[in-house]
């Protein structure tokens, strides 16, 4: 089935490495123009350059996406340099240190919620009027196995990713009559460079360790990118409000 992505304009956050970078290159291979947004300038510029080498237009915007001015720059650049926004991939995120609830500090809590939930909310809110006006659009989030269960990560990360799941479902319902689809992939163990902090106590890691046997094999970033491209594409034209586990069956254990 045709993906319908050729000529589309795509924003990928966290596109400088890992799943995001693989998604950038997968969209470029489909003929889509790509804006790479990342806090890592070298990674963002390198991914954009590689996308251009594949024959598509690509831009890089560097900054913290939880800052409204950076969100505004991303959207402005997509509109002015690429010609619009057809697809938004909210992929950027950070991990916690696996802390249990009583051990989560204010700084960690606020940072995880700000980066993993507030930032994709701000960017989604910013692109929805564009998609609504054109009568079409697709938003794909990188959720997590931690969106589906309580035993996959620390409290702060788990809560942030459960929030992402709520944002996906609410937005899908609110905007489906405008031709806008909103979905998410839920990765299990994936080979990326996302860092896990040093645990502050034994409670979190000790409890989580009991469930580690269900993880299965570690996925390559390209496997997640393929699922993201599918959800963004015409091949998933009637898929809306879905959280797609890409976890080798971990969610089924």
TrEMBL record:
Pfam family of the protein (one): adh_short_C2
Family annotation (CDD domains): SDR_c (cd05233)
Signal sequence annotation: none
InterPro entries: NAD(P)-bd_dom_sf, Sc_DH/Rdtase_CS, SDR, SDR_fam
Superkingdom of the source species: Bacteria
Protein family membership: Belongs to the short-chain dehydrogenases/reductases (SDR) family.
Protein name according to UniProt: SDR family oxidoreductase
């Amino acid at each position: 089935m045709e993906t319908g992505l050729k000529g589309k304009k795509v924003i990928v956050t966290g596109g400088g490495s890992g799943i995001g970078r693989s998604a950038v290159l997968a969209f470029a291979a489909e003929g889509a123009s790509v804006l790479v947004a990342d806090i890592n300038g070298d990674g963002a510029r390198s991914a954009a350059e590689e996308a251009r080498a594949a024959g598509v237009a690509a831009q890089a915007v560097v900054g913290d996406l939880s800052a409204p001015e950076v969100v505004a720059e991303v959207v402005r650049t997509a509109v002015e340099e690429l010609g619009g926004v057809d697809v938004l991939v909210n992929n950027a995120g950070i991990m916690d240190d696996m802390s249990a609830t009583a051990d989560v500090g204010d700084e960690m809590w606020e940072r995880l919620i700000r980066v993993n939930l507030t930032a994709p909310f701000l960017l989604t809110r910013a692109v929805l009027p564009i998609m609504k006006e054109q009568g079409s659009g697709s938003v794909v989030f990188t959720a997590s196995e931690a969106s589906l269960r309580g035993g996959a990560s620390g409290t702060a990360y788990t809560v942030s990713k459960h929030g992402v799941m709520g944002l996906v479902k609410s937005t899908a319902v609110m905007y489906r009559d405008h031709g806008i689809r909103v979905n998410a992939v839920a990765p299990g163990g994936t080979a990326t460079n996302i860092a896990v902090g040093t645990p502050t106590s034994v409670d979190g890691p000790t409890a989580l360790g009991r469930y580690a046997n269900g993880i299965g094999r570690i996925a390559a970033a390209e496997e997640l990118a393929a699922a993201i491209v599918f959800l963004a594409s015409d091949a998933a034209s009637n898929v809306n409000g879905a959280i797609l586990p890409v976890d080798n069956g971990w969610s089924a254990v």
